[in-house]
Amino acid sequence: MSAQNMHIDSYERNWMIFSFILLAVFASAIAVAAFGMEIQVPAPEERVDPGTVATDPNSPWSNPGLREIAPGKYDAYILARAVPQWEYLPKEITVPVGSRVTFYVTSPDVQHGFKIQDTNANFMVLPGQVSKLTVTFDKPGAYNFICTEFCGAGHGVMYGAVIVTP
Ligand code: CUA
Question: What's the pLDDT score for residue 45?
């Protein structure tokens, strides 16, 4: 049968056209969200050795905290740990309003979570892996971050804050 005399029912053809339009709309929505609104999927940035990540002097997490890499742009190296106690290191970071902060979070022991209140930042923190996400803080205030993965007896007290100053 040649393509010329292949009959496609109009009902079926319309659904095919509709399906292709739907695919195009979804692809555009993803493109707009990713490139226009900068909505990112938290990506595993790199692999590290959980046994030495907190102690190796060459590891940024041996001295966790905030680094200013350009005016208004920061890298925040945060260690989420359960031993010797459940906590984030550092527990608090302070940046001026309008700052763009890229978080690099890892764990030397068990699985943790990292969710920053009033932002769309929410990801898992796995030992051996670095989770990375960038957040722009446009409004001053205290943005608490909490652990969202059950990590043991102290899970409920595992929190910290990003302080955004005017
Ligand atoms: Cu750390 Cu839950």
Answer: 82
